[in-house]
Structures are given as C-alpha cells and as structure tokens.
Recover the amino acids of this structure.
C-alpha cells in the first residue's frame, strides 16, 4: 500500500471517502457519491474540443446512459460509480489502477502515483469490485487495442458469477462511452464555438489552439477562418470515422453476441434498452464510417449462419427498415 496522501484541497485521501461516508462502507450509494466527487475534483478544469467541460460533455452522458440500462438496484450504483471513474487513469496524470483480484501482489514504486485501489480500500469488497471495473476499462500505454477490447468482453463462466457481473457492467459502460464519443452533433458545436473564438484570437493563441487540437496545418503563416474551420471539421470527421470503424468491426458484434444472444446474467441490465443503444450506435457508426450498409452486413461475418435462427441481428433489422423507407441514416437525409 502507498502511504496516505492528501489529494485536492485535502478532500480525498488514500484511505478513501470522508469519515461520514465510512459509516456504511458497504453501501453502493456512498461509493457512487464518492466517485462522483472525485471525478468532479480531478476533471473540473478539463474541456473537450467542443469547448464543453469533460464532466458535462462526456462523463455525465456516460453516467446517464449507464444508469438507464443497468437499472437493477443491486448493481446500479456500482455501475454509476465506475462510469464516473472510467477515464481517470487514462486522462489524469499520476493515477493508476491494478487488478485487485490478481494472485500476485502489486507494489507501486512511484511515490507520486495515486492508486485507485487504495482510494477505495475502505469500501472492502465493493471497493475491489469498483477497482476491477476501472481496471477493465483502462487502456494501458503500449497495450494492443485488440487485447484491451478482449479483456472487457472476455466474460468468465457463470461459475464465477461475481466477476462475470463486473465484466457485464464494464462492457455496458464502454458502450455508453462509445456512444458519447460518437456524438455526431459535436462537430457542429465545435465549429460554432471556434468560429466565434477565431475572431478574438491573437496569432499566438490561434497557433496554440492548433497545436492543442493537433490540427494538420502546414501552411505558411496563420490559417484564414475558413481554413481553420475546415481543419477542425476534418479532425472531427476523421476521429469519428475511426471510432465508427472500431464499433462496426469489434464493439457492436461482440456486444450483441455476448449481451443479447448469450444473455450471461439475469436482471443486471435492461435488454430492450441495450438493444436500442446498440441500434443507435450502429446507425451513427454507419453515418460516420461512410460505409454502404451492405458492406457493414458483410463485415465480421454478419451473413454467417452462426446467428441463432430465432434471432434477428440488429444491422439486418436496420437494413430491412431502410429498404422499406422506414429508417434513414442522417447521411441519406
């Protein structure tokens, strides 16, 4: 264990929550409250490229989507807590998390590192469960992305029901995360915000924004307003296309098979609402990827006979509705 370390303004320490919250350390309500306050503390100054705060523009939508789908009272507050913290290790310096159920004991050698496991230790097994979900959702530097995806969706057997439930919760949080990151309205919001801001920038401020957003500007001098906004638009569309292709090739087929067809656990999540989320993700991913729907159907063996005969794959249902004119992607409107 690391030595106790005061965090922001003394509000958090590695013993975990405030003393008032430790009156009932096994309560998921308290751990959800603690996780929310920790997220607000460490993310409070961070903004997305749209100009929105990370909390309002990303964390809150992920929490809301997660809590609507995982609506079983036994697991909802744990899922909400994990949704608040799902990005903390990837996005905040000096935070780390390890597998609390690993057989080999972990020793942190960097004295400046704040271990999520230590922050949650006062919550006992509930803290271990939350640490494990955050561990599953953290893409570590140098880790193959395919290995990261498989770690989330590699559900254990029902013999290990508690761990299986944590994988299910992590997978639904990841889908909520993908939904937030593929918000097709963000490009318009960013263009509106940056169009107004352009007129107020000094030359150095404009170059700073270009560097911070990692825009591909290779021209001499400063870009015109039109050039600048074209760069912003290109960045959003490229990023959305990458996310969309990840969804179509990996996340959506895996989620549909593991969560809707196999149905690994009972009463943890609402299957109807999950199917609606996957349908929305499919539609937005088709939009952003610019792939013909026939190509999407062929992708990852969606024409395969391996689908149960009584189950209609989501993408096939979308294709049939589009053919009948009952459904349109935004790209075709």
């Amino acid at each position: 264990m690391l030595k106790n370390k005061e965090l922001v303004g003394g509000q958090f320490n590695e013993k975990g929550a405030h003393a008032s919250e430790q009156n009932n350390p096994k309560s998921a309500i308290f751990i959800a409250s603690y996780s929310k306050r920790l997220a607000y503390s460490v993310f409070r100054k961070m903004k997305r490229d749209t100009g929105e705060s990370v909390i309002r523009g990303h964390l809150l939508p992920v929490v809301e989507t997660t809590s609507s789908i995982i609506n079983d009272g036994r697991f909802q507050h744990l899922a909400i807590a994990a949704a608040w913290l799902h990005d903390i290790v990837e996005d905040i310096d000096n935070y780390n998390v390890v597998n609390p159920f690993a057989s080999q004991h972990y020793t942190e050698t960097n004295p400046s590192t704040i271990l999520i496991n230590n922050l949650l230790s006062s919550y006992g097994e509930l803290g271990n469960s939350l640490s494990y979900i955050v561990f599953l959702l953290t893409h570590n530097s140098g880790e193959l992305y395919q290995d990261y995806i498989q770690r989330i969706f590699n559900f254990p057997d029902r013999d290990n029901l508690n761990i299986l439930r944590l994988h299910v919760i992590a997978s639904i949080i990841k889908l909520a995360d993908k939904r937030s990151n593929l918000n097709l309205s963000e490009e318009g919001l960013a263009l509106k915000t940056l169009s107004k801001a352009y007129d107020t920038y000094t030359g150095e401020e404009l170059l700073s924004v270009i560097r911070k957003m990692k825009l591909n500007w290779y021209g001499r001098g400063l870009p015109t307003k039109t050039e600048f906004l074209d760069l912003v638009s290109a960045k959003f569309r490229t990023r959305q296309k990458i996310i969309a292709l990840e969804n179509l090739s990996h996340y959506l087929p895996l989620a549909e098979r593991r969560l809707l067809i196999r149905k690994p656990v009972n009463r943890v999540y609402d299957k109807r609402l999950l199917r609606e989320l996957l349908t929305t993700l499919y539609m937005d991913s088709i939009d952003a990827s610019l792939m013909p729907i026939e190509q999407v159907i062929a992708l990852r063996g969606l024409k395969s006979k391996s689908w149960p005969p009584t189950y209609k794959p989501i993408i096939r249902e979308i294709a049939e509705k589009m053919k009948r004119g009952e459904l349109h992607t935004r790209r075709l409107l």
Observations:
- The radius of gyration is 22 Å.
- Residues 182-254+280-333 form one domain.
- Strands lie at 95-96, 114-115.
